[in-house]
Design brief:
alpha/beta; about 325 residues
C-alpha cells in the first residue's frame, strides 16, 4: 500500500488511534496516553494570542479574577516547560473551596476544540485547558515522549493554573486516559475525574484481539497504523503501553460512554471493537471506589460536542462533590 493509499485510514476511527467518522465527514483524533511527575515553568505571552482568543469565542476576556486567583494564569498564553512552550488557556474565577477544572482534549485536538465547553463552564468555575506537546499551538516534543515526561508537562501546567488549589480533571479520549493514569500518583491534588469516552487502558490488546493477524482488507491498515501511533507515532510521539487501572482512592469519578455506535465501516470487526471499547469504559471504574458509569445516548465519540449538556452536568457534579468533601 502506498503512502497516498494509506491516508484515508489516517482519517478514520478516532478512538482506535487514527480518526473518527462524524456527520459524513472525517475528523482527527488519536486515543492514547498516561502521566506522572512534576516540573517548574515560567510564563510568557502567546505571540498568537489574538487569534487564539478569537477562536476561543472570547474566553480569554474573562471576568476580573477574585483575589484568590491573583498570580495565576488567565487568558491564553504560552508557558515554558523544560525548554518547550506549552499553549495554555484559562477563564472564569474560583469560588471558595471549589476545585479548578482542567480540560484535557483527545489526541489530534488542541484547546480550541474544547473552547465551547470551557466557555460554558467558566460562567461558574475557573476552567483551564492546554495543548500537549505536538498538539495545537504548543511546541513539538524534542523527541519521543514517555508517560513520565507527559506527566511532567501536566504537572507544570497545574502548578501555573491552579497553584496549590485542588483540581478536577475532565478528559476526552486520550485526555481521559491521561487524567485517569495521572490521578493515582497525585491524590493530594486531583480531587475528581470526568472521563468522556476515555481510551481503553488495554487498547493494544483490545485491538490485536479485535483485528487478528488473520484479518484482511482495510482493517489491517487500521490495526497497523494504530499500533504504530501507540508506539510513539506523531503528533505527540508518545509511547503508550497497556496497564492495569490503579486506584486514586475514593474521589468522585464519572465515566461517560458514547451511545451511538459508528464502526460499521469495518463490518467484520466493528461489533467486536465496540464491545471492547465498552469494556474499557467499565475498567476505568476501578480508578475510584466512588465512580459511576453513564451513557450519552445521542452521542458518538465527541460527547462534549454532540451532547455538551451531558458533559457540563457531569463536570459540575464532580466539582461540587469534590468541594463538599474538602
Amino acid at each position: 500500500m502506498t503512502a497516498m493509499e494509506k491516508q484515508p485510514f489516517r482519517r478514520q476511527f478516532s478512538y482506535w488511534g487514527a480518526n473518527m467518522v462524524r456527520n459524513g465527514r472525517l475528523s482527527a483524533v488519536i486515543a492514547l496516553a498516561c502521566a506522572v511527575a512534576g516540573v517548574g515553568l515560567v510564563g510568557c505571552e502567546d505571540s498568537t494570542k489574538a487569534d487564539a482568543d478569537a477562536s476561543a469565542g472570547g474566553r480569554s476576556a474573562a471576568a476580573p479574577e477574585k483575589a484568590a486567583d491573583e498570580g495565576l494564569l488567565t487568558g491564553t498564553k504560552k508557558i515554558e516547560v523544560g525548554g518547550r512552550l506549552v499553549n495554555v488557556s484559562c477563564a472564569g474565577t474560583s469560588a471558595d473551596g471549589k476545585p479548578v477544572i482542567v480540560l484535557l482534549s483527545g489526541g489530534g485536538d488542541g484547546l480550541e476544540k474544547v473552547a465551547g465547553i470551557q466557555k460554558t463552564l467558566s460562567e461558574k468555575n475557573r476552567v483551564c485547558s492546554y495543548d500537549r506537546l505536538g498538539e495545537g499551538a504548543s511546541d513539538k516534543p524534542e523527541g519521543p515522549q514517555t508517560l513520565k515526561s507527559t506527566g511532567k508537562v501536566l504537572t507544570a501546567v497545574l502548578d501555573r493554573v491552579a497553584g496549590d488549589r485542588p483540581v478536577v480533571l475532565a478528559g476526552h479520549s486520550l485526555g481521559g486516559l491521561i487524567a485517569a493514569r495521572y490521578a493515582p500518583e497525585h491524590q493530594d491534588r486531583v480531587k475528581g475525574l470526568v472521563l468522556m469516552d476515555a481510551t481503553s487502558p488495554t487498547q493494544t490488546a483490545d485491538l490485536n484481539k479485535g483485528i487478528p493477524e488473520s484479518a484482511t482488507g482495510p482493517a489491517v491498515a487500521l490495526r497497523d497504523q494504530t499500533l504504530a501511533i501507540l508506539h510513539g507515532g506523531e503528533p505527540e510521539m508518545l509511547t503508550v503501553p497497556d496497564g492495569k487501572v490503579r486506584s486514586a482512592g475514593d474521589i468522585p469519578v464519572e465515566v461517560i460512554h458514547h451511545g451511538k455506535q459508528y464502526l460499521a465501516a469495518v463490518p467484520d470487526y466493528g461489533p467486536g471493537l465496540e464491545r471492547a471499547w465498552t469494556n474499557g469504559q467499565r475498567k476505568w471504574l476501578a480508578v475510584s471506589s466512588h465512580s459511576r458509569l453513564s451513557t450519552a445516548k445521542n452521542s458518538e465519540h465527541y460527547i462534549y460536542v454532540d451532547q455538551p449538556e451531558v458533559a457540563v452536568r457531569a463536570i459540575e457534579r464532580v466539582t461540587s462533590q469534590a468541594a463538599d468533601r474538602a
